[in-house]
Amino acid sequence: MKGIIFEIRRFTVHDGPGIRTTVFMKGCPLSCWWCHNPEGQNPQPEPWTRLEKLKGRVFEKQMVIGQEWTTTDLMTELLKDRVFYEESDGGVTFSGGEPLMQPAFLKEMLALCRQHGIHTAVDTSGFAPREILMEIAAISDLFLYDLKVFDEALHVKYTGVSNRIIFENLHLLLDAGKPVWLRHPVIPGINDSEDEKEKLKHLLSQIAGPIAALHLLPYHSIARNKYRKSGKTNRLESLNDLAESDLYPMVKELEETGVKVVIGG
Questions:
Q1: Mean pLDDT (whole number) for 83-108
Q2: pTM of the model as a whole
Protein backbone atom coordinates (compact mmCIF):
# COMPACT_ATOMS: atom_id res chain seq x y z
CA MET A 1 0.00 0.00 0.00
CA LYS A 2 1.31 3.45 -0.92
CA GLY A 3 0.37 6.99 0.08
CA ILE A 4 1.61 10.50 -0.64
CA ILE A 5 3.22 12.36 2.25
CA PHE A 6 4.54 15.93 2.12
CA GLU A 7 6.17 16.14 5.55
CA ILE A 8 7.07 14.05 8.57
CA ARG A 9 7.61 16.23 11.63
CA ARG A 10 9.21 14.75 14.73
CA PHE A 11 8.92 15.76 18.38
CA THR A 12 5.66 17.68 18.00
CA VAL A 13 3.78 18.54 21.18
CA HIS A 14 0.68 20.31 19.82
CA ASP A 15 -0.91 17.50 17.80
CA GLY A 16 -2.22 15.29 20.58
CA PRO A 17 -0.93 14.05 23.94
CA GLY A 18 2.77 13.61 24.69
CA ILE A 19 5.65 13.72 22.24
CA ARG A 20 4.50 12.78 18.77
CA THR A 21 5.50 12.34 15.17
CA THR A 22 3.08 14.08 12.83
CA VAL A 23 2.64 12.69 9.33
CA PHE A 24 1.29 15.23 6.84
CA MET A 25 -0.70 13.50 4.10
CA LYS A 26 -1.31 15.25 0.80
CA GLY A 27 -4.71 16.27 -0.50
CA CYS A 28 -7.55 18.30 1.02
CA PRO A 29 -11.13 18.92 -0.19
CA LEU A 30 -11.18 22.32 1.54
CA SER A 31 -9.43 25.49 0.43
CA CYS A 32 -9.42 27.58 3.60
CA TRP A 33 -8.32 31.17 3.18
CA TRP A 34 -6.03 30.84 6.23
CA CYS A 35 -4.58 27.41 5.36
CA HIS A 36 -1.10 27.11 6.86
CA ASN A 37 -0.22 24.09 4.72
CA PRO A 38 -1.18 25.20 1.18
CA GLU A 39 1.33 22.70 -0.18
CA GLY A 40 -0.92 19.97 1.20
CA GLN A 41 -4.07 20.85 -0.75
CA ASN A 42 -3.21 19.24 -4.08
CA PRO A 43 -3.43 15.43 -3.71
CA GLN A 44 -0.58 14.91 -6.17
CA PRO A 45 3.14 15.72 -5.91
CA GLU A 46 3.79 19.22 -7.26
CA PRO A 47 6.76 21.47 -8.10
CA TRP A 48 7.85 23.99 -5.48
CA THR A 49 10.44 26.75 -5.44
CA ARG A 50 12.59 27.28 -2.38
CA LEU A 51 14.90 30.27 -1.91
CA GLU A 52 18.35 29.43 -0.56
CA LYS A 53 21.28 31.63 0.36
CA LEU A 54 24.90 30.82 -0.44
CA LYS A 55 27.79 33.23 0.13
CA GLY A 56 25.49 36.21 0.24
CA ARG A 57 23.62 35.31 -2.94
CA VAL A 58 20.05 34.05 -3.20
CA PHE A 59 19.25 31.09 -5.43
CA GLU A 60 16.01 29.43 -6.42
CA LYS A 61 15.97 25.69 -5.79
CA GLN A 62 13.35 23.60 -7.54
CA MET A 63 11.89 20.73 -5.56
CA VAL A 64 8.87 18.45 -5.49
CA ILE A 65 6.38 18.57 -2.63
CA GLY A 66 4.91 15.16 -1.89
CA GLN A 67 6.68 11.82 -1.84
CA GLU A 68 5.27 8.35 -2.25
CA TRP A 69 5.72 6.12 0.82
CA THR A 70 4.82 2.50 1.39
CA THR A 71 3.16 1.62 4.67
CA THR A 72 6.12 -0.63 5.50
CA ASP A 73 8.69 2.13 4.97
CA LEU A 74 6.65 4.71 6.86
CA MET A 75 6.14 2.38 9.81
CA THR A 76 9.90 1.74 9.93
CA GLU A 77 10.43 5.50 10.06
CA LEU A 78 7.87 6.02 12.81
CA LEU A 79 9.33 3.28 14.98
CA LYS A 80 12.62 5.19 15.22
CA ASP A 81 10.99 7.45 17.82
CA ARG A 82 9.09 4.77 19.69
CA VAL A 83 11.02 5.35 22.92
CA PHE A 84 9.85 8.99 22.99
CA TYR A 85 6.23 7.95 22.51
CA GLU A 86 6.50 5.45 25.35
CA GLU A 87 8.23 7.82 27.78
CA SER A 88 5.77 10.68 27.20
CA ASP A 89 2.51 8.81 26.52
CA GLY A 90 2.74 10.21 23.01
CA GLY A 91 2.34 8.62 19.61
CA VAL A 92 1.69 9.37 15.96
CA THR A 93 -0.70 11.93 14.48
CA PHE A 94 -1.89 11.79 10.88
CA SER A 95 -2.59 15.26 9.57
CA GLY A 96 -2.56 17.03 6.23
CA GLY A 97 -4.07 18.18 4.07
CA GLU A 98 -6.90 15.88 4.99
CA PRO A 99 -5.81 12.33 5.90
CA LEU A 100 -9.28 10.94 5.18
CA MET A 101 -8.62 11.61 1.48
CA GLN A 102 -6.25 8.63 1.52
CA PRO A 103 -8.46 6.25 3.54
CA ALA A 104 -6.95 2.88 2.57
CA PHE A 105 -3.40 4.05 3.30
CA LEU A 106 -4.48 5.72 6.54
CA LYS A 107 -6.39 2.65 7.68
CA GLU A 108 -3.41 0.39 7.12
CA MET A 109 -1.07 2.78 8.94
CA LEU A 110 -3.42 2.99 11.92
CA ALA A 111 -3.61 -0.80 12.05
CA LEU A 112 0.19 -1.10 11.97
CA CYS A 113 0.55 1.47 14.75
CA ARG A 114 -1.96 -0.46 16.84
CA GLN A 115 -0.03 -3.68 16.28
CA HIS A 116 3.05 -1.94 17.70
CA GLY A 117 1.13 -0.44 20.63
CA ILE A 118 1.52 3.14 19.40
CA HIS A 119 -1.18 5.69 20.23
CA THR A 120 -2.70 7.33 17.15
CA ALA A 121 -4.57 10.54 16.42
CA VAL A 122 -6.24 11.73 13.22
CA ASP A 123 -6.36 15.48 12.61
CA THR A 124 -9.36 16.03 10.35
CA SER A 125 -11.78 18.61 9.03
CA GLY A 126 -14.50 15.96 9.23
CA PHE A 127 -15.38 16.54 5.58
CA ALA A 128 -15.58 12.94 4.40
CA PRO A 129 -18.16 10.21 3.71
CA ARG A 130 -19.48 8.88 7.01
CA GLU A 131 -18.58 5.30 6.01
CA ILE A 132 -14.92 6.26 5.67
CA LEU A 133 -14.95 8.25 8.90
CA MET A 134 -16.38 5.38 10.93
CA GLU A 135 -14.00 2.83 9.42
CA ILE A 136 -11.12 5.04 10.53
CA ALA A 137 -12.75 5.67 13.91
CA ALA A 138 -12.72 1.93 14.61
CA ILE A 139 -8.91 1.86 14.69
CA SER A 140 -7.93 5.39 15.73
CA ASP A 141 -7.39 6.32 19.38
CA LEU A 142 -8.19 10.04 19.10
CA PHE A 143 -9.63 12.60 16.71
CA LEU A 144 -8.44 16.19 16.51
CA TYR A 145 -11.56 17.66 14.93
CA ASP A 146 -11.39 21.07 13.27
CA LEU A 147 -14.43 23.33 13.38
CA LYS A 148 -13.72 26.34 11.24
CA VAL A 149 -16.85 28.44 10.60
CA PHE A 150 -20.38 27.87 11.93
CA ASP A 151 -22.53 29.82 9.49
CA GLU A 152 -22.95 27.57 6.45
CA ALA A 153 -22.83 30.33 3.82
CA LEU A 154 -19.66 31.76 5.37
CA HIS A 155 -18.16 28.28 5.56
CA VAL A 156 -18.73 27.83 1.84
CA LYS A 157 -17.22 31.25 1.13
CA TYR A 158 -14.07 30.76 3.20
CA THR A 159 -13.41 27.03 2.76
CA GLY A 160 -15.15 26.14 -0.50
CA VAL A 161 -17.47 23.51 1.02
CA SER A 162 -20.60 23.22 3.15
CA ASN A 163 -20.20 22.39 6.84
CA ARG A 164 -23.30 20.18 7.11
CA ILE A 165 -21.48 16.86 6.83
CA ILE A 166 -18.79 18.15 9.20
CA PHE A 167 -21.31 18.63 12.02
CA GLU A 168 -23.13 15.40 11.16
CA ASN A 169 -19.86 13.47 11.35
CA LEU A 170 -18.91 15.11 14.63
CA HIS A 171 -22.14 13.88 16.22
CA LEU A 172 -21.55 10.41 14.76
CA LEU A 173 -18.17 10.22 16.47
CA LEU A 174 -19.52 11.47 19.78
CA ASP A 175 -22.51 9.12 19.68
CA ALA A 176 -20.06 6.26 19.07
CA GLY A 177 -18.09 7.29 22.16
CA LYS A 178 -14.91 8.21 20.28
CA PRO A 179 -12.42 10.52 22.05
CA VAL A 180 -12.43 13.94 20.38
CA TRP A 181 -10.45 17.14 20.88
CA LEU A 182 -12.15 20.04 19.13
CA ARG A 183 -9.89 22.58 17.43
CA HIS A 184 -11.15 25.99 16.33
CA PRO A 185 -8.94 28.48 14.46
CA VAL A 186 -9.87 32.06 15.31
CA ILE A 187 -9.53 34.27 12.24
CA PRO A 188 -10.12 38.02 12.67
CA GLY A 189 -12.91 39.32 10.47
CA ILE A 190 -14.00 35.84 9.41
CA ASN A 191 -15.18 33.73 12.34
CA ASP A 192 -14.75 35.98 15.38
CA SER A 193 -18.14 37.73 15.22
CA GLU A 194 -20.57 37.56 18.12
CA ASP A 195 -22.86 35.36 16.03
CA GLU A 196 -20.07 32.85 15.41
CA LYS A 197 -19.12 32.83 19.09
CA GLU A 198 -22.72 32.23 20.13
CA LYS A 199 -23.04 29.31 17.72
CA LEU A 200 -19.84 27.78 19.06
CA LYS A 201 -21.04 28.26 22.62
CA HIS A 202 -24.39 26.65 21.78
CA LEU A 203 -22.67 23.61 20.25
CA LEU A 204 -20.41 23.21 23.29
CA SER A 205 -23.38 23.36 25.65
CA GLN A 206 -24.92 20.46 23.71
CA ILE A 207 -21.84 18.23 23.63
CA ALA A 208 -19.93 19.24 26.76
CA GLY A 209 -19.89 15.74 28.25
CA PRO A 210 -18.15 13.75 25.50
CA ILE A 211 -15.65 16.47 24.49
CA ALA A 212 -12.24 16.22 26.15
CA ALA A 213 -11.25 19.81 25.32
CA LEU A 214 -11.63 22.71 22.92
CA HIS A 215 -8.40 24.15 21.55
CA LEU A 216 -8.58 27.70 20.26
CA LEU A 217 -5.94 28.35 17.62
CA PRO A 218 -5.10 32.06 17.21
CA TYR A 219 -4.46 33.11 13.61
CA HIS A 220 -0.81 33.32 12.61
CA SER A 221 0.83 34.31 9.35
CA ILE A 222 3.62 31.72 9.45
CA ALA A 223 2.57 30.36 6.04
CA ARG A 224 3.12 33.63 4.15
CA ASN A 225 6.40 32.46 2.66
CA LYS A 226 4.80 29.19 1.53
CA TYR A 227 2.29 31.14 -0.53
CA ARG A 228 4.99 33.31 -2.04
CA LYS A 229 7.16 30.35 -2.97
CA SER A 230 4.31 28.39 -4.51
CA GLY A 231 2.69 31.22 -6.40
CA LYS A 232 -0.61 30.49 -4.63
CA THR A 233 -2.83 33.45 -3.73
CA ASN A 234 -2.73 34.40 -0.05
CA ARG A 235 -6.05 36.13 0.57
CA LEU A 236 -5.01 37.08 4.11
CA GLU A 237 -1.60 38.51 3.20
CA SER A 238 -2.15 41.71 5.19
CA LEU A 239 -3.88 40.16 8.21
CA ASN A 240 -1.99 40.55 11.48
CA ASP A 241 -1.37 37.69 13.91
CA LEU A 242 -3.51 37.20 16.99
CA ALA A 243 -1.83 37.08 20.39
CA GLU A 244 -2.90 34.48 22.94
CA SER A 245 -4.05 37.30 25.21
CA ASP A 246 -6.54 38.37 22.53
CA LEU A 247 -8.44 35.15 23.21
CA TYR A 248 -8.60 35.31 27.01
CA PRO A 249 -12.13 36.81 27.10
CA MET A 250 -13.34 34.15 24.64
CA VAL A 251 -11.85 31.39 26.78
CA LYS A 252 -13.61 32.68 29.87
CA GLU A 253 -16.95 32.89 28.08
CA LEU A 254 -16.73 29.43 26.49
CA GLU A 255 -15.69 27.76 29.75
CA GLU A 256 -19.17 28.58 31.06
CA THR A 257 -20.36 25.60 28.98
CA GLY A 258 -18.34 23.21 31.16
CA VAL A 259 -15.86 22.36 28.41
CA LYS A 260 -12.14 22.69 29.09
CA VAL A 261 -10.83 25.44 26.81
CA VAL A 262 -7.15 25.93 26.05
CA ILE A 263 -5.24 28.17 23.66
CA GLY A 264 -3.03 26.44 21.12
CA GLY A 265 -2.41 22.79 20.32
A1: 98
A2: 0.93
